[in-house]
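User: Please run a holo structure prediction.
Assistant: Happy to. Please share the sequence and the ligand.
User: Here you go; the ligand is alpha-L-arabinofuranose.
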Amino acid sequence: MKLYIQDKTPLGTIQPEIYGHFSEHLGRCIYEGLFVGEDSSIPNEKGMRADVVEALRQIRIPVLRWPGGCFADEYHWKDGIGPKEKRKKMINTHWGGVVEDNSFGTHEFFELCRQLGCKAYVNGNVGSGTVQEMSEWVEYMTLDGVSPMADLRRENGRGQPWRLDYFGVGNENWGCGGNMTPEYYAQLYRRYQTYVRCYDPKAPIYKICCGASAFDYEWTETVLRECFRSPSPAYLHGYMDGLSLHYYCGVEKGEHKGSATDFDQARWFDTLSSALKMEELVTRHGQIMDRYDPEKKIGMIVDEWGCWHDVEPDTNPGFLYQQNTMRDALTAGITLNIFNRHCDRVKMACIAQVVNVLQAMVLTEGDKMIKTPSWYVFHMYRHHQGARLLDSRLEGVEMIGLAEDQMVPNVQQSVSVDDSGVITVTVNNLSVTDDQILEIRLESGEAKPVEATLLHGGMTAHNTFDAPETVKEAPFHDFSQEGDVLRVRLPKCSVLLLRMG
Ligand code: AHR
């Protein structure tokens, strides 16, 4: 198989935020996962778990979305500010029926982002919140002058406003966020976003409109039509900066999603073929967006994506706690390659979710933490953040699989170049039976590897608290230079990072 790389003419920039993450008040994501409280025996800084913060810094987390998800449209932000002992306690009715004590709120979220060194993406409540409530939250977070909300923030110990980078106007308003029709939501978007005020022109808030679930092209079409119809506020700067899209592999199977760790080859291809459908989703939703926004000013924001398997045995079904194998790693690799290649439209993406929920980066148990295979993929792919996409083409790809409607290419890739001229190639071998010989040719001549690492294992391989390093990124040396060609042996079921100078 041959990989041709056009390295003389870089294409668009891969926004670092494509490598973003999502944290919801769900299961053990916030509580135990990210936040243990200052009095915990688990090492922490201001209540944030030190080991988890460090692991996320290592993958250069660019942005974190919070507080949901479905939780966002039930969240009333004033419950989560002020002295902790006075904060409301309530049942998290959506996720697991456990007590939510609101000890993690707005101040804690921004402190977490500070420790992570990442941008803040706050998702507002349209489903059960008022325009006033949303408007006041933005005022509380971002206004520097005199105002009731800015004064309240100061009373609660924070003088300066925070930098609010992204604001979502509702979440899944076609479902858990209010079961709305696209026509109805579009009217609410027009109205609610008006009061998401930007108080500091030097710190604009990127407003995100609630987009579709998976293949619901009708939602995208209708929301855009209604949002841009006359009298259109579209001429206003920052009317709609982004439109979201959610897609999970496996969620459509309802009660029959299947085990995260115990699966056969048929399920392997089923999942990977689902992951590859992201190509169709980004293309087709993008084509609709092109009609309303031909200059591609509105970003496609895939702020929930990943694998959704059965929960681990004997865990609360409402906690969505699942293990993570090489299948999840390949899903991540495939999806991120697709986002890279569509970086002209995809401006942010947040895998769901960052800790202990769905396709997590890390899992925790008491004071222990393990990195999942998906963490390693984000670690390997971090070099694409902010780099420029290079056109690349594979010759000799074969379609493999066990069923006609679940065929996948045996190899898939994306390539970028960073400011220092180093080329990053990320390649996935989707076959669980066959290694591949890959001959890499650069348009400009010789390709000299400066770094190569590999993530590799059996299709169900995963890390556990007893065996935390079963799957891990390792140095890779199985390549040779033959003239201008770099010849690589790509093991079956693997993700490869190759950097060339
Ligand atoms: O990530 C879990 C849930 O999936 C989110 O709360 C919701 O937005 C989606 O349906």
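The chain has two domains: 15-385, 391-500.
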